[in-house]
Structure to design on (114 residues):
């Protein structure tokens, strides 16, 4: 069974509040709950985060895995995906607008954060 978590923050890479605690602890915990093969499907758990500047300071040499366009009203936005690993958990880091490198994790614009 494949499980992919998408979050704006996850400890230990970037943490602002409670979501960072949950997104940083639940995926690794689920990954450790592997049932024996005869009892059910194995879990393939992964995490996806925006590639915030704070994360760039902590992650050394993430592996580039893809470039793609994000469907957006008016024009498609270019994005890149990188892969790193945190305590055995695969973490995909997404880089591109509207999340700019110098922006904080959350802004005062709910439409931009949403």
């Amino acid at each position: 069974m494949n499980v992919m978590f998408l979050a704006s923050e996850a400890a230990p890479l970037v943490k602002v509040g409670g979501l960072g605690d949950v997104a940083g602890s639940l995926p690794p915990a689920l990954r450790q709950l592997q049932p024996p093969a005869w009892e059910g499907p194995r879990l393939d758990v992964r995490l996806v985060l925006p590639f915030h500047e704070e994360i760039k300071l902590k992650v050394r040499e993430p592996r580039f895995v893809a470039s793609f366009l994000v469907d957006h009203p008016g024009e498609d936005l270019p994005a890149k995906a990188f892969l790193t690993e945190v305590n055995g958990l695969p973490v995909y880091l997404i880089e591109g607008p509207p999340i700019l490198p110098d922006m904080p994790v959350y802004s005062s614009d709910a439409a931009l954060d949403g």
